[in-house]
Design a protein that fits this description.
- The chain has 428 residues and is of the alpha/beta class.
- The radius of gyration is 24 Å and the shape is globular.
- It contains 15 helices and 15 strands.
- The chain has a 7-stranded mixed beta sheet with strand order 1-3-4-2-5-6-7, sandwiched between helices. Strands 9-8-10-11 form a 4-stranded parallel beta sheet, sandwiched between helices. Strands 13-12-14-15 form a 4-stranded parallel beta sheet.
- Helix content is 32%, strand content 17%.
- The chain folds into 3 domains: 172 residues, 3-Layer(aba) Sandwich (Rossmann fold), CATH 3.40.50.300; 106 residues, Rossmann fold (3-Layer(aba) Sandwich), CATH 3.40.50; 115 residues, Rossmann fold, CATH 3.40.50.11410.
- Helix 11 crosses helix 13.
Length: 428
């Protein structure tokens, strides 16, 4: 607990992943007091403060626990009025932050009399349907009425002094009040399962699996199942048949690594629902229907077509890398010849998607829902089909319908299967 009594750091691997946190971005002119404001909210010196304009260059991220909201990420950005060639690059990076912003704090200084620049950025935020709180800072220097600001902007305002701590508590209350409730779905998979459901997780431990650890989607799925009073059974694909034989009843669901869809599909009885970690993530972070439609676009690829493979994280490619070897080989087999394939990693996602016939995205466990939806919307606006790794593997194996049918119309109704009514010996 920090001295403020309301915030604590979240820096170790046992804490909520950054991608699952509410992202609160702070925008404003140079020296409006953005960094000081974050320090005041968090009760920590997490952002560099200086009298000299332009101290904050690249966006700075700080994961915190903000009560009563819970896990959040504050993003400190460069000044909207930054100048010069380097300044324009900083502003461009600030603009990119909007794609992952769930709630924006627009910081005003009473020292500024013109709001033309703020109005431009307000329109950009409004286009993205991002809720905004206006923060009039430095009231310890000059206290001005809210009317001066509210007549030009239709979002709520609060007057604060980051230096003196004035009204910071009120700002925290407003953050809780105006934070979007739907920034992420309530569950990965547990919301469509009945309590006490038995779920098998197939987790191959190949060369790409992290040493002594499971990958993040696997860990998150296990926790989600436990939170919904379900039973998680974990095995490698080489032990899957043995696990099924050891059960008295068929499982209610099997979740597998997408790369072994074909093998697992042959082992798991047809009357047992089957999906993958990547498909679960596409529901949780993106838009399932769009990805299903995009998977069918694989059939339309022709030799010479250009395809974008997008990865949310950066990593050192290993032998048989999924994004650089396995999926390109799968797509080229479907197309009947060589494709022009671009691989982009991390935040490197093109603005212009029109050269591509298809976008193939990873499971996006390192992106928040807002950021993933921004990429999907960009693809839809430019009429470029988009799908993800799990959908592609399922489609190639001819089991896309099976891998997505348990989600129905996203009604949230419990998954009903015949698993508990069928003996394993009858299903295998």
């Amino acid at each position: 607990m920090t001295p403020s009594g309301s915030l604590k750091g979240c820096d170790d691997m046992n804490e909520t992943p950054r991608a699952n946190r509410l992202h609160i971005a702070v925008f404003g002119r140079r020296n409006a007091g953005k960094s000081s404001l974050i320090n005041a909210i968090t009760g920590q010196e997490v952002a560099l403060v200086s009298k000299h304009p332009g101290t904050t260059t690249d966006p700075v991220y700080k994961a915190m626990e903000l009560l009563p909201l819970g896990p959040v990420v504050f993003i400190d950005t460069a000044g909207l009025d930054d100048t010069g060639d380097l300044g324009r690059l900083r502003v461009k990076k600030t603009l990119a932050v909007m794609d992952k912003t769930d709630l924006a704090l627009m910081v005003f200084s009473p020292e500024n009399s013109s709001f033309d620049l703020e109005k431009e950025w307000y329109e950009k935020l409004r286009e993205r349907k991002i809720p905004i709180i206006g923060v009039v800072n430095k009231v310890d220097i000059k206290d001005t009425g809210i009317d001066k600001y509210s007549k030009d902007f239709d979002f709520p305002f609060v007057k604060v002094s980051a230096k003196e701590g004035t009204n910071i508590w009120k700002l925290k209350e407003m953050i809780s009040q105006y934070a979007p409730s739907n920034f992420e779905l309530p569950a990965l998979i547990g919301d469509i399962l009945k309590p006490k459901s038995q779920v098998i997780l197939v987790t191959p431990q190949d060369i790409q699996a992290p040493k002594n650890r499971l990958i993040l989607p696997q860990v998150q799925t296990i926790r989600d199942l436990l939170d919904h009073n379900c039973m998680a059974l974990v095995a490698k694909d080489t032990e899957l048949e043995d696990l099924l034989q050891s059960l008295k009843w068929l499982p209610d669901l099997v979740i597998t690594d997408s790369q072994i869809f074909h093998r697992v599909n042959e082992i798991v009885p047809e009357n047992v629902p089957l999906t993958s970690f990547s498909i679960i993530m596409s529901r949780y972070k993106g838009e399932l229907g769009t990805f299903i439609k995009g998977a069918h676009a694989i059939d339309e690829l022709k030799p010479g077509d250009r395809v974008l493979i997008a990865e949310a994280c950066t990593h050192h490619p290993l032998e048989n890398d999924i994004g650089r070897q396995k999926l390109p080989a799968l797509l080229e087999k479907k197309a009947g010849g060589k494709l022009e394939i671009d691989v982009k990693a991390g935040a490197d996602f093109p603005e212009d998607l029109t050269p591509y016939r298809l976008i193939l995205h990873c499971g996006s466990c390192m992106l928040n829902r807002k950021q993933m939806l921004s990429r999907i919307i960009r693809a839809i606006q430019q009429d470029v089909p988009i799908t993800n790794y799990g959908m592609a593997f399922a489609h190639a194996a001819g089991i896309l319908k099976r891998a997505t049918s348990m989600f129905g119309q996203e009604s949230g109704s419990p998954l009903t299967t015949g698993g508990r009514h069928d003996k394993v010996s009858e299903g295998l």
